[in-house]
Amino acid sequence: MSTHHPDEVLLMEYSAGTLSEPMALCMRMHLDRCSQCRGQLDMLNSLGAIMLDHSQQASRVSDDLFDNIVAQIDSEPAPREAETEKPSHDSPLERLLGSDLQELPWKRQLADVSVYDLSDRFPGDERVTLQKLCAGGRAPSHSHHGSEATLVLTGAFADANGVFSKGDFVILDHHHDHQPVALHGEDCITLSVMDAPVKLTGRLTRLLNPFIR
Fold first, then answer.
1. What is the pTM of this model?
2. CATH, range 8-88
3. Where are the alpha helices (DSSP H) in the chain?
């Protein structure tokens, strides 16, 4: 079961259909594994439908509109507890790739890190990559010039923020300086969406910053 989740703002943007395609993909794949977030999304979708219904029935907002909306939400049956994980063959990422993750032509970036770039499959300027950290391996210490959304696909990694396992979702920005370490036993593969390059902060690796896009 996922222990790291997107916040309510991201769930609202996903419900409204305003996220970029790569971010929506990350959210969709997290939701496939997380019954907690699916329940929150169901509530947001119900709220949106109720508000749309009221907007069509009235030309102005009445004083008791909010109370009516809350009453209707409370009267909705609670979402059924669904399975924590849907079948892997239903993965939209695997349908996009047309290949198993392990069979991709991974490009070795650093000693323990390999990448597969998906950016050209999406519109916009975000960089979308699959990153593989070998079991027990360390990624370089880094921060971020912008934001990076990461979804764990296989394995797990740990950093100063905790342990992140399959299905976990996290967004980091310039306030975070971390060094992910893959747990032993299985390679950790993540899907990442970045709106700006990372910033290497290690004593030696920071010399590579001018060469990072």
1. 0.76
2. 1.10.10
3. 8-16, 21-33, 35-57, 65-75, 92-97
